[in-house]
């Protein structure tokens, strides 16, 4: 999960940097250039939606992660915690 989250974060940072470089304009930018930028942004919309899906998947996965040792020793959980193993556990005899 954490590897996937870091990869997604890095990808989003690169995409943000690329978008900021590609789609720059000011009040003196000609209308034709702005129209072209708008068309390119419409093409980028699918990438935005894919990134949104990826982030939402990570958010859903993060809800299943539990803190094994609370950082605050005064923290008491009254809820039942269901833990899933990340791998099979075999006890040696």
UniProtKB/TrEMBL annotation:
InterPro entries: Plakin. GO terms for molecular function: structural molecule activity. Keywords: Coiled coil. GO terms for biological process: cell-cell adhesion; intermediate filament cytoskeleton organization; skin development; wound healing. It holds the Pfam family Spectrin_3. Residues 31-58 form a coiled coil. GO terms for cellular component: cytoplasm; intercalated disc; intermediate filament; plasma membrane. Belongs to the plakin or cytolinker family. This is Desmoplakin isoform X1. The lineage of its organism: Eukaryota, Metazoa, Chordata, Craniata, Vertebrata.
